TrEMBL record, chain A:
One of its GO terms (molecular function) is ATP-dependent protein folding chaperone. Keywords: ATP-binding, Nucleotide-binding, Stress response. Pfam families: HSP70. This is Heat shock 70 kDa protein 8. Belongs to the heat shock protein 70 family. InterPro entries: ATPase_NBD (IPR043129), Heat_shock_70_CS (IPR018181), HSP70_peptide-bd_sf (IPR029047), Hsp_70_fam (IPR013126).
Length: 658, 113
């Protein structure tokens, strides 16, 4: 019952290459599904994609094709599993080589995993089609319910038939949701800290490791991870699409928030790999909306590709977990992303602010996570959520709720109070929009259209704030606030899969930009950006560095991503050492560090000594980033403790460069 | 090369960019990368040609192995030249005599994979 782990030797084969290798892996079963995961220290993690698996158990060894696993799960769980596809979850699931070697016959689907709701869309041959689940919903709640040994994801909403019941069940502590906010974050992260008031268990130690997450099953906390929850959810989503398309699905284009770090992206890719999906492209959410806008403008003006008048759109997206802004220049079906910015505030923060406002002793009350408290927390959450939704259309709203244990909340909430409580959130939204305009070197008057998307775009204050900053009266009308991102993703899926449409409705292109600075630590603890934010990708930039000590023979390249001026304010992506630098006075050696992002958004760092030259110089090093696994909060401190400043680098001033 | 081969025109365009970007004695000639004459051009000319080449060279639209590198060169050329010819500058005292290099793809579209 429950979780079944089988330790096994899996033989994996590298796609496109002969020869097999044995690795140790865990085959585990969750709710009738089998997931094969390599051991942490097995050699799979450095490899590419893997196709076939041999499971050796004890002395018997036999081929275990995908069909085999599927047949066995069919006997236990019915027909639903027959089309499951299993792959070994690997950190480096996608490589550029893979894509050029193999042509994928199927068209990638578009997936938008929201913090609260999720949707999926396909290109059906002539247009984008959003899929509905068995309950006729396009937007499906993003959660996974843990009950005894069965799991049910929000795709089918299997837990209860009525939505009121469903909501209460979700908040009973047995369901894990908000995984998009938790995935790939350390327990020192403030977003993780804020998640402690959720009904399920989020335990932190505050030392920079992954938080402990657990769901309540039969009065016991059962541990899980955001990746696992997401994978279980994706399996159901995939089954839904396959049921609709009647053929297996392998590729997906996924929309992600702008504020997602590259480390979080690898976690998302890992969850997809666990569910047997290959992430063809990761698109920042507003850029997917920009693509949809580009298509509409193209049809409106009957432009040929690459010609036509340029239109500038500002896209603001605010969902439950994240806010993003983007400026896109569109001409003739080409949408070029001029600037991107994002932050981690969303509807969830608004909700928590209001809950704290109506119940001042909120934090102390819900500290213990006892069943009683979880229940009253759920009641408060539902009531507050309801009130916020109502406030979008009316002047004030009554919150009247009996939380049990003698706790009662009775409050009238009006607009000015709502805005007062959430002032910090609105300020953050303002900040990212202003930054976007500054980065794109545009004045509000240059903007032709303002597009508001995401669940929170219905909040009047958000609308007036964005329109005010852009000096517009009304927002762009022809885009559905909840369906735009997933439609754009499905379109990008078709384009990136090489689909062409005779009517020309796919003669589109998005030219993406990097959302964050990428660089290395240099000049003490400073951050030297090599690829600045909003650089068009694919991109390749290099920069020269020099040694900081006489006769320094080693140099540490610590790669960071972010907006901070100090290296440690940013996300550490990985590090490596250049050894064998010829002894020379400080400042005389030239070390080139080159960063390269390809079309599928893979970051590679090349580094080596360029001056002096000669046979004694070590070869260049190429590293695919990020290289870090969990516990990355520790790494930076550990590096500083171990090496201090002995193997530091300094930026070589521009005027000395050739 | 047989022009009817799928994707061959786009592939050719990508290799042409690589050839034009080969470092010469006085550094790279970014005008050649864009296929533009060195004199008498405006910001708009550059922008138009840049956008046209984006469509031909972007790896989403061009399956050739050279596309990735060519697109990066195109970006460098665009950055260098749009700095040199800011919008509104009227360096075009006379209409340009040399036509822009015809890109081999008449109408950009993704080649079948």
């Amino acid at each position: 019952m429950g979780l079944v782990f089988v330790r096994c030797e899996a033989v994996v084969q590298r796609r496109g290459l002969p020869g097999r290798r044995a690795v140790s892996a865990d085959l585990f079963r969750r709710g009738g599904r089998f997931i094969l995961q390599p051991r942490l220290n097995s050699s799979v993690l450095g490899g590419d994609s893997w196709l076939s698996i041999v499971v050796k158990r004890g002395k018997t060894s036999r081929w275990c094709s995908d069909a085999d696993i599927a047949i066995r799960s069919t006997t236990s769980k019915g027909k639903r599993m027959a089309e499951q596809f299993y792959t070994v979850a690997s950190d480096s699931e996608t490589t550029g080589e893979d894509k050029s070697q193999l042509s994928f016959p199927d068209v990638a689907i578009g997936i938008d995993i929201g913090t609260s709701k999720c949707s999926v869309a396909i290109w059906n041959g002539h247009q984008v089609e959003l899929l509905k689940n068995t309950r006729n919903q396009k937007g499906m709640r993003s959660y996974v319910m843990f009950k005894d040994d069965t799991l049910s994801a929000g795709v089918t909403g299997g837990a209860a038939q009525e939505s009121a019941h469903e909501e209460r069940d979700i908040l009973s502590g047995s369901a894990i949701f908000n995984m998009k906010r938790l995935i790939g974050r350390m327990d020192t992260d403030e977003v993780v800290q804020a998640s402690k008031t959720l009904p399920f268990l989020v335990q932190t130690l505050g030392i920079g490791v992954r938080p402990f997450i657990a769901a309540l099953v039969n009065n016991m906390w059962r541990s899980t991870t955001p990746e696992e929850v997401l994978a279980i959810f994706l399996l159901e989503l995939k089954a839904l699409v396959e049921m609709h398309l009647k053929h297996p699905v392998r590729n997906a284009v996924l929309t992600i928030p702008v504020a997602f770090s590259r480390f979080q992206q690898t976690r998302i890719e890992r969850a997809f790999a666990m569910a047997g999906l290959h992430v063809l492209r990761l698109m920042p959410e507003p850029t997917a909306v920009a693509l949809l806008y580009a298509q509409q403008q193209q049809q409106l003006m009957h432009d040929n590709m690459g010609s036509g008048i340029e239109k500038i759109a500002l896209i603001f997206n605010m969902g439950a977990g994240y806010s993003d802004a983007a400026v896109a220049a569109t001409a003739g079906g080409v949408s070029q992303i001029r600037a991107l910015s994002g932050c981690t505030v969303g509807g969830e923060d608004i909700l928590q602010n209001i809950m704290r406002h109506v119940l001042p002793n909120f934090d102390s009350l819900y500290d213990g996570h006892t069943v009683d408290r979880i229940k009253s927390m759920g009641l408060l959450r539902i009531a507050t959520q309801d009130a916020i939704h109502k406030l979008a259309n009316q002047e004030s709203v009554d919150i009247n709720i009996d939380l049990g244990n003698g706790q009662k909340v009775s409050k009238v909430l009006d607009h000015s109070e709502f805005e007062q409580v959430n002032r910090a959130i609105f300020e953050k939204c303002e900040k990212i929009i202003i930054q976007c305009l500054v980065d794109a070197k545009l004045e509000p008057e240059d903007i032709n259209d303002v597009i508001l998307v995401g669940g929170c775009s219905k909040i009047p204050r958000i609308r007036s704030l964005v329109l005010g900053l852009c000096k517009k009266e009304v927002s762009y009308k022809n885009i559905d606030a909840l369906e735009a991102a997933v439609s754009g993703a499905a379109m990008e899926g078709a384009i990136a899969s090489g689909v062409t449409d005779p009517s020309g409705s796919l003669d589109l292109l998005t030219i993406q930009a990097t959302p964050m600075n990428l660089g290395i630590r240099a000049d003490g603890n400073n951050f030297a950006a090599i690829i600045p934010r909003n650089t068009t990708v694919p991109a390749r930039r290099d920069m020269l560095f020099t040694t900081t000590h006489d006769n320094q023979t080693e140099a540490l390249i610590a790669v960071y991503e972010g907006e901070g001026e100090q290296a440690e304010d940013n996300h550490l992506l990985g590090y490596f050492k250049i050894a064998g630098i010829p002894p020379a006075p400080k400042g005389s050696v030239e070390i080139s560090v080159c960063m390269d992002i390809d079309a599928s958004n893979v970051l590679r760092v090349f580094a080596g000594v360029v001056k002096p030259q000669g046979p004694a110089i070590p070869p260049f090093i190429e590293v695919r980033m990020p290289t870090l696994d969990d516990g990355h909060g520790w790494c930076g401190q550990a590096l500083a403790k171990m090496y201090g400043k002995t193997i530091d680098l300094a930026v070589l001033p521009k005027k000395l460069q050739p | 090369l047989c022009p009817s081969l799928p994707g061959v025109a786009n592939a050719l365009a990508a290799y042409e960019v690589h050839a034009a970007a080969a470092p010469a004695r006085r550094g790279r000639n970014w005008y050649a990368v864009l296929g533009l004459p060195t004199d008498a051009i405006t910001h708009d000319d550059i922008k138009k040609q840049y956008r046209r080449l984006c469509l031909v060279l972007h790896p989403d639209k061009n399956r050739s192995a050279a596309a990735d590198g060519a697109f990066k060169l195109l970006q460098q050329a665009w950055e260098a030249l749009s700095d040199r010819h800011p919008p509104g500058s009227t360096s075009a005292s006379k209409p340009s005599r040399t036509e822009p290099r015809p890109t081999h793809a008449p109408r950009p579209r993704a080649p079948p994979s």
